[in-house]
Design a protein that fits this description.
4 copies of one chain form a homotetramer.
Chain A: E1 2-4, H1 9-19, E2 28-30, H2 39-42, H3 55-61, E3 64-67, H4 74-83, E4 87-90, H5 99-106, E5 120-121, H6 124-131, E6 136-138, H7 142-156, E7 160-169, H8 183-186, E8 191-192, H9 202-215, E9 229-236, E10 243-251, H10 257-267, E11 274-276, E12 292-299, E13 304-311, H11 315-330
Parallel strand pairs in A: 1-2, 1-3, 3-4, 4-6, 5-6, 7-9, 11-12
Antiparallel strand pairs in A: 7-10, 8-9, 10-13, 12-13
Helix pairs in contact in A: 1-11, 7-9
């Protein structure tokens, strides 16, 4: 097993989790910036003097490759991985959307559109069966994972008409040395960004919920989808990890708190990493864990349904989910090497 | 001029601003906890050895009294202030709502319901003329100020049908030693609270916007109001000062970005403390100032209007607004002692 | 195995670590405040509905008891634990100092002075052999662990004459809801406290270093100690976890950087949780791990030796060290259930 | 009056303070990056649409020029300012040290060594008389201001033998977009940097204290200095503004707390911006103000003197001090436009 892009935050979390995975050997990791240097030179938290090696060597040595690279790179690497009879888990957006939609929202010409049909969408709560034995997984990101899991029960039930989704994210979501993330201008500050329907995770949220609306609970990656219009407004919050989704959903039919509780508890009853909480979720409760905390709330004054979802954007929203997909793909127990409980405080 | 409740955050900001006010003398300030002790013992930022004095002495000495006390106390003090021919600016919720509504949402029996008719609602952007010469001002709080100013142009135009309002607040809004505001459990954390239509600032937001809908731009404090249903979901953000309102408004008629820009710029063209910004507001830009930064955004995908409003909850959302009201009430220039520009970083 | 005081931060970390310990069963945990309530009601990060049980039940069920209680309580409980043939790991200060010294610095009369001779001082790097099979362990705290490990090589070498030690700590060191740890007054703030030689960890640091000076590297818990005078000045830093010790040591003999490197690397060569780093330690690099990062630096201008030590105060400075001691005491591999690598960012 | 380098943090603070200065006109400000753009495009806190203009225009229009530029630039600009009969306040290091010392520590060849004799060192508490009417002021930075004021009374008394100085700084000291100051790697982190006697503010601290030792309280900028050896270890603290100096001084003679109190209170009795506090200083107490809070503490166990000094690094440690010097230079009241009290919380 190998990791490309091991000097980014997603890569670091993959290393942290995979190093504790029994029965898996980390055969190599790459980073253009740190090539030849020891792991500890890139990451103060790791006590490991093995060097970053060239990407080609990782590809040669590994049977499964995690690609934690910027958008647009995996599409050039995955074809050779699959051709060599190996498997790939892509943490970027390259294989999450139909190539035409991808090109429209990401502004990047797609180099391997033929592989989209092969890619399984890596949200285990919705696509567990398809993931078993998959060769290529398109691992979703933090906002989409949280928003999809928040609204999935309503969509699968066929009652979701639309939603106003507010995303609140810590700065690690912008990556290492992310633009506009200097401490002096982030701490004690709070701001919306990419508001007004311009964030490129919108079509992915709509695709996920639209499939559930069209196909119900057993929706498949490449199946039919109904149209669903979401408003999505992300904000940058002065914290490092954690995202919270606050969604106001317009729903059909008559609902009350008890019916919502039952819907959500039943929907997620067998899920190892989704908890429907009594109170209201808080991001810190998921720190370092692969857990999502969810809460639906019926708002009598407006007849709308509020749903809150909290997760650690680098774990369930990124590397942890990739490991969960890896476990399913390779036949390991799904929970292997994935903490359900986090650090506090 | 005197301050009751000078050992809370609102009191501290009042002292900071009023000490720099030319032509006003701070004749006394009280706090049960610090009575007899010097100001510097309560506040490390103040270099002032004058002692806190008993409340009665402040009331005796001052011609205008600022009441920065917990809800339910001002209603017992204001009658004697007015009887003595003096004036009062109340920073609590006691005189903001009709007594019956107040009792229903605050759970406190009202001791001076007859004074509600006398109280002018202290939002200068909407009630400037009434504030001139007022004897009793009901100074609104941070969430209500921000949400009202965010949606007022749409309401005064008569097109506001409803809104999903998300409130994001730093912890100083909970007061000094506020419950659940320990650093170890707030830093790197984010959580909703009082969700589902239970926050007591909701009726006040609805009252303000309902009056504008019914009466238009020249709405008066005690005039008629139309019903408007808001959803309001507050969140605690790991920062000390600053609030951001993110609202999604449902509006009548056909709008686009340019029409919105014109509406908002015209509405606030003469306001000394409201700025309609080009980009998106951020809370830190208002730190320590009495300014509100606003931005309306037309969202084509949904046909809704997003509005963002940022302000410093202890200044424009509390003490600064009280000083602005004081200036109007006493005939000072409205901008006296009130910075429009803040600290950065 | 059971935990007393499971609703404090030390208790929470013990639960996190022990739940992942293979071959150990957590048979009960207590907290006066949460008795009868599920674990998840006290801790948002834990997904565990088992209830807190009365202290007596924990003592009855457990073969090894971790006491994460305020100072002064363990001394009343440990006698019965030992009498019942069980073992105890005390995370408080009760058994770290000779009873007379304890009473002088803690202002608490000692109820079980006779047990001091039995207690092994729980710093594995200095007392590994004594800890194997110990019945009672006095687990040291964060400042003392860091300061002792920072200066131990110089003391064991016999060259340490004295040191100016500056301690910098996140607020979790003050415990849950610790006095003066409200977010609004901690964030963007930094302050010294208990300065001028009044902090009660001073005699413990002097005892540890004095024993090394007198007995050398193989110092034993109750052996002879030489006098060494330290200045210790703690500070509260606006962060949750992590402490850094910055010490300026006055040393005998001629030193240079290379000699220091050799001394420190040799001293800690076999230690599983102590890393001598190339650059300068930073606290975040140890987050959630049981690792200490150390760096000695020879300062030519003054002829002094600077030493920096960083650790996670709740892990190596508290619960992780307790688990390390437990492993030694019970014959488990010392590293069991203890991460050497932390979370980043 | 004009400002060069108005898009850095020092520049922003200068604008904030000078815009509120009565009787001074801000005739222009420059920034290469923002030239031609409005002030509000660089600074969200400022409501000012005047454009940044070319540096030459500022120099032409202004009678007094504040230079808030990186080290090495002022030395090329100041000669023409002075030649034109104008005055300069330089916030960089260019004129603080004898040119040879400067070159050795800064690694920059000095272009105007002849002007060093002309420059008055801009610490009003030590050089007030020289500053009146000065043509060129070398404005000291945050660490040096705090460390010098902390130890000045001991040096002027002739008893200071040496000191171990620990500096703790918020990240704004590293400037806008300072290296290594990304939120995700600064928050919840704490680290030393440039340790071991390599920080270039060391010779400046030694020069200031050495002059006081040699000349006593009335020391002059270019007078004789005695050698004094300091150890200085700076740390980066996860906060934006504020620095704290914690110094352990070795002193001659017999001291106790009362004698120290008297020494410090007398030394600073007439100073408008220096407060000797009862308790221990905290950085947040100075936020946004030009005040320094100081505390000497006699440590009986070691016979050493601890001194703590807290200030806002961008005000008294930078722009506020520059305005204080400007006031002295131009004959304004020294306190004009300079708050002594800050924001809290």
């Amino acid at each position: 097993m190998g990791v490309l892009g091991a000097s980014g935050y997603g890569g670091a979390e993959l290393l942290r989790l995979l190093k504790a995975h029994p029965g898996v050997e980390l055969v190599g990791f790459s980073s253009r910036k740190y090539e030849g240097k020891p792991l500890s030179s890139a990451w103060p938290q790791l006590w490991d003097e093995r060097p970053f090696i060239p990407q080609e060597e990782v590809l040669e040595r590994a049977e499964v490759v995690f690609l934690a690279l910027p958008n647009g790179l995996a599409m050039g690497i995955v074809p050779e991985v699959l051709k060599a009879g190996k498997r790939a888990i892509d943490l970027s957006g390259d294989f999450r959307l139909p190539p035409g939609v991808y090109e429209a929202w990401y502004g990047i010409p797609h180099k391997s559109p033929e592989l989209y049909a092969e890619a399984v969408y890596g949200l285990p709560e919705l696509h567990r069966e398809e993931l078993k034995g998959a060769r290529l997984v398109a691992n979703p990101g933090c906002y989409v994972t949280a928003a999809t899991l928040a609204l999935a029960p309503l969509a699968a039930e066929g009652v979701l008409k639309g939603a106003f989704v507010v995303g609140l994210s810590g700065v690690s979501g912008a990556g290492r040395e992310g633009e506009g993330t200097f401490f002096a201008e982030v701490n004690e500050n709070l701001k919306p960004y990419k508001a007004g329907g311009t964030h490129r995770h919108i079509p992915e949220m709509e695709q996920n919920l639209g499939r559930l609306l069209a196909q119900g609970r057993r929706a498949r990656t490449h199946g039919e989808a109904k149209a669903v219009r979401l408003s999505f407004t992300p904000h940058l919050v002065p914290m490092t990890r954690g995202i919270l989704i606050t969604a106001e959903a317009e729903v059909e039919g008559g609902w009350d708190q008890e019916a919502l509780n039952t819907l959500y508890r039943d929907f997620y009853a067998q899920e190892p990493f989704v908890r429907v909480v009594e109170g209201l979720p808080e991001t810190k409760g998921t720190l370092g864990s692969n857990r999502v905390d969810l809460k639906p709330l019926y708002e009598e004054r407006t007849g709308r349904v509020l749903v809150f979802a909290a997760l650690d954007n680098l774990v369930k929203g990124m590397a942890g989910q990739a490991v969960q997909n890896f476990n399913l793909m390779m036949g390991f127990s799904e929970e292997t090497a994935l903490p359900k409980e986090g650090l506090w405080p």
